[in-house]
Write the structure tokens for this entry.
Amino acid sequence: MTAPTWHHGVTARWWAEFNTSGPEIEYFRRHVEAGQPALDLACGTGRLLLPYLRDGLDVDGCDVSADMIELCREAAEREGLAPRLYTQPKHQLDLPRRYRTIFMCGALGVGSTRAEDVQSLDRVYEHLEPGGRFVLDNEVPYAEGNGWELWPSEGRRTLPRARRPAGKRDVGADGTEYELRSRVLDLDPLEQRITREMQAFMWRDGELVAADEQLLTLTLYLKDEIVLMLERAGFVEVTARAALTDAEPTAADDFLVYTARRPPSADARA
Ligand SMILES: C[S@@+](CC[C@H](N)C(=O)[O-])C[C@H]1O[C@@H](n2cnc3c(N)ncnc32)[C@H](O)[C@@H]1O
């Protein structure tokens, strides 16, 4: 059983409508151009995948959410594109192809436990050609808004947080209105896991037509844990850099990017 995630239903629609840009697209593009075929692991509704396909890059996509994959496919088909898309959890990744590059943006620990994340790294390794690269980003747990203040016992005593009142609605291209609300329910410092309640609402012509309520768990990692997890999975040349500049990371960097290589010939795990 995969840990809870919220990228379904109204949330998936919100994602397809509003989450279509960002500097990560250009950043990860360089890695895809340097090694094809590539796999966008946890591709969501195709924020990165669709621009790459548009430019003729050879990239497949995989995500646990059938709703996200379906919306990605619909968007691709509107542009006459026919990507290979798969609905699978990353810790059970089992695809017919092997890749020069696998990239994962905003998905380590999202809706997955530590054990599943460890397993995911093994599955990524198996899906890379020898010498192929894995690139992923991750937000540090002490970044603003990640609930660092909730780790000590006095912080945890404030949980669960109260539900938020109604807030700002986002308006889609067809006039559909959306609102997402979230609150922290729990933080488990032993498991390094934060559990959020996520609500998603959708209105048409001022009338509420859908409302979803889901849990989202996020497993939080410090830099050296990720480096060690990658090395344990058999990767070599593991680096951690500041996103998205590739500079040596400092305490001021909230996002880090990790690159790791499957050894070119003899399997390091054999
Ligand atoms: C924050 S979104 C990022 C989507 C996309 N990579 C992007 O940057 O726009 C996280 C994605 O991870 C997917 N996801 C969550 N748990 C997963 C799992 N166990 N296996 C594969 N994908 C998962 C979600 O469905 C969602 O599409």
